[in-house]
Amino acid sequence: MPNPYHYGSPVTGDQFTGRHHEVNTLVERMRDGINVVVVSPRRYGKTSLLRRAAEIVERDGGAVVSVSAMGLADARSLAGQLLRQTYRLDGGRWHRAKQAVPTFLSRLRVKPTVTFNGDQPSFSFAATLSSGELDDIVADVYAVLAEVAPRKPSVLIVDEFQDVLDLGPHLPGLFKSLADRHPTVSLVLAGSKQHVMQQLTLESTGPLYGMTSRLALAPIPPEEMGDFLVRRATAGQKRLSVTLADRIVELAGPVPNDIQYLAYEVYNTAGRTITASDVETGMRLAVEHEADFDAWRFAALAPGQRRVLRRLAEAPTATPYADDFRDAVQARSPGALRNSLTRLLQADLATMVDGTYRVTSPFFAAWLRSHV
Ligand SMILES: Nc1ncnc2c1ncn2[C@@H]1O[C@H](COP(=O)(O)OP(=O)(O)OP(=O)(O)O)[C@@H](O)[C@H]1O
Ligand SMILES: [Mg+2]
């Protein structure tokens, strides 16, 4: 039996649970040509949600171009993704055939190199593709979507949007002007660097301020996650009680990725019936398997940051500037403490959940408690 849990990359089908309200909201916005920014801390399920909503819109005949700006090496990687996705738009004037390609290319001011694998074209650009040429490609793709929009929903999704900044600080402004010019296309942006996404879209000085509605993902409710774990265990032909499923959620939550990771380890270690001791063993294994990474991340921190992180692992707090916390981390000054905490939050090593600062990963927290 393959392990029924999945972590580390987006989930679909039976591995996707809940989020009904968010999926409906996003699908509605996409259909209505409304721009949306999806924000959440890392690994809450943004990309999975985008894919789910896109699937529904496409199934109903909508046109969706979906790209990710994550860690792009250069402008041509984004340009290539945009063209591949635009070409495959179902129901567009070009279908997947050789004669369709010239029609497609006639829409583009910057011509890619086209190679065929059977009937399937692939598009690529020279390494020297300039930032101005990328702008033209983005604008041309937007125009194709806008042309489709009066007849059916038309959506441009850019995941990990904050990374477009690496290709040019002007790009968010370009998206803004295209969105203004083509109001019927729904522009959907998501990103995992919350503070950058916030600055770009939600602060009055940001280039995309005021043009997007905001969809913030909360954790998936613990009962929903617990039921999901039970269902998946059954699909994997093992028995998991609700009580132990809830225990897994409590140990690893609230981040869905972490819950699935722990469940994965527990499932691997258990026999046909998952026991309380399997859950404890799974937790130990989950921590051990990340230990090298944790040791490396910890070593890369300044001593003051290490003390703050270790203290947060021992005792999450709502009041990190109170005397007891400051004394425990031997902070030289409130300013030094604020700097350390800010760095930890920006690096996503620490986080604030329900007003309480804590170590983001429950496995890193457990490692800190037992190894440092
Ligand atoms: N709706 C869901 N149901 C079950 N598990 C989920 C769900 N959404 C996310 N997960 C869990 O979280 C993991 C990460 O999901 P996903 O990649 O969609 O998150 P993300 O927010 O895009 O992450 P990142 O911040 O790294 O881009 C998945 O592998 C899965 O374990
Ligand atoms: Mg993602």
Task: Describe what this molecule looks like in 3D.
β5 (154-159), α6 and β6 form a beta-alpha-beta unit. Helices cover 50% and strands 12% of the residues. It is of the alpha/beta class and 372 residues long. The protein folds into 3 domains: 19-216, P-loop containing nucleotide triphosphate hydrolases (Rossmann fold); 220-300, Helicase, Ruva Protein, domain 3 (Orthogonal Bundle); 301-372, Orthogonal Bundle (Arc Repressor Mutant, subunit A), CATH 1.10.10. The chain starts with 19 loop residues before the first helix and ends with a helix. The model has no long low-confidence stretch (mean pLDDT 93). Bound molecules: adenosine-5'-triphosphate and magnesium ion (MG). Magnesium ion binds at residues 46-47, 159, 192.
Quick structural summary:
With 372 residues, the protein is of the alpha/beta class. The protein is built from 15 helices and 9 strands.
Q: Top keywords for this entry?
A:
372 residues, alpha/beta, Rossmann fold, Helicase, Ruva Protein, domain 3, Arc Repressor Mutant, subunit A, 3 domains, five-stranded parallel sheet, binds adenosine-5'-triphosphate, binds magnesium ion
SSE order and pairing:
Blueprint: H1 20-31, E1 36-39, H2 46-59, E2 63-68, H3 75-87, H4 100-105, E3 113-117, E4 120-124, H5 131-148, E5 154-159, H6 171-181, E6 186-191, H7 194-201, E7 213-216, H8 222-235, H9 242-252, H10 256-269, H11 276-299, H12 303-314, H13 323-328, H14 334-346, E8 350-353, E9 356-359, H15 362-371
Parallel strand pairs: 1-6, 1-7, 2-5, 5-6
Antiparallel strand pairs: 3-4, 8-9
Bound molecules: adenosine-5'-triphosphate and magnesium ion.
